[in-house]
Amino acid sequence: MRRMATTLLYHRDPLLLTFESRVVAHGTHGSRPSLILEATAFYPESGGQMGDHGTVRVDGAERKITDVQIDEQAQVHHLLDDGPLPAIGATVSGSIEPARRRLFMALHTGQHLLSHSLLEVARADTVSCRLGETACTVDVDVPALTERALRDAEAHANAIIDDDLGVYAWFPDDAELAALPLRRRPKVNEHIRVVAIGGKDGEPLIDASPCGGTHCTRTSQIGVLRVAGSEKYKGKTRVTFAAGARARRELTDEAAALRALAAELSCGPLDVAAALTKVRSDVAAVSERMERLQGQVAESAAAQLATAHPAPAPIVAVLGDKALVRAIGARLMSYDGRHALLAAQDGDGLHVLCVRGPGSTFDCSAFLKRVASEHGGKGGGKPERAEGRLPAGVDWAALTRG
Ligand SMILES: [Zn+2]
């Protein structure tokens, strides 16, 4: 049995936020019971746009609408919070959550404007779009977009927002439809709704597309459009954008983060990049100086250790720093006929390094493998140099005497 399609009040007036209608049926959507009204101003999720939220009131009791969906017979299913559904035949007062509706109107109209701008500025044709709860994207049929093209498209869209042009939605007859320069082909064959930016009362026609969504009635209601960036996606380019209240929140949040960073760097927000370049070069200079000083320390420590442990005994030391142990080890590899057994104490054990100089026949790798297998550690390398780890509590000085 074919059921009556729900009358869609938002098609006529996207700013209609309260309405009254009769309950005509109880339905189900997915596994949830749903309320079907004769007419509704609630936008059901479709065409990449999320459904409205809000309330219905019946006999003084208010119920939350948590989701709105539309089925193949064009009946709109209102999904309510837990509780019995209002009786069939009852009249309910519906109320749309205004901030969410206004946001999606701005995002949707912003998407039309951005798709037009990307076509105008970069010959990039929109193939699909999504207006999500947290992010909005437009996919265009070009392999890449330059930062310059994104900025130009954003500026183009914002100029049209400032022009405060009318945005019109209507169902043209066949002759009028045929004469309209539609940006994309309709997805349905009859009852085609067109959304146009400009084109009436002497305004230039900026964009005309078939669309069933809720849109602003003037471009200035979009407020601002911002392009956050783009990425390659399956041979195409995905552009991320925001409009209206969401764009303002993103911009103010990012500005606050930038100001906090600027305060840390004791500079203005626009000087952060220059300040960071200076910090990077300061860090590079400090680490170069550190390396030079560590080289000098290692040089003199190597000489002192060699004197303190005369040949043929090995040069033995336990230090506090792995990098210093490696630096000293590197220098001791030039000491003729000597070998060194060095260790660095750290949190969970000993980092050990064995090296030998020219003329020494000591096998560093064999020594370390034996010690590691006897004490539950690990290590290895070459006869000239071997490195490994031993568990905490191993007495390195005693071990190297054997
Ligand atoms: Zn639209």
Key descriptive features of the protein:
single chain, 402 residues, alpha+beta, Elongation Factor Tu (Ef-tu), domain 3, Threonyl-tRNA Synthetase, Chain A, domain 2, Diaminopimelate Epimerase, Chain A, domain 1, 3 domains, six-stranded antiparallel β-sheet, five-stranded mixed β-sheet, 9 helices, 30% strand, elongated, binds zinc ion
Describe the fold and architecture.
- With 402 residues, the protein is an alpha+beta fold.
- The chain has 3 domains: 7-96, Elongation Factor Tu (Ef-tu), domain 3 (Beta Barrel), CATH 2.40.30; 102-262, Threonyl-tRNA Synthetase, Chain A, domain 2, CATH 3.30.980; 301-399, Roll (Diaminopimelate Epimerase, Chain A, domain 1).
- It is built from 9 helices and 20 strands.
- Strand 5 and strand 6 (61-70) form a beta hairpin.
- Helix 2 (98-122) crosses helix 3.
- The model has no long low-confidence stretch (mean pLDDT 94).
- Zinc ion is lined by residues 108, 112, 195, 211, 213, 215.
- The site of zinc ion has 6 residues, from helix 2.
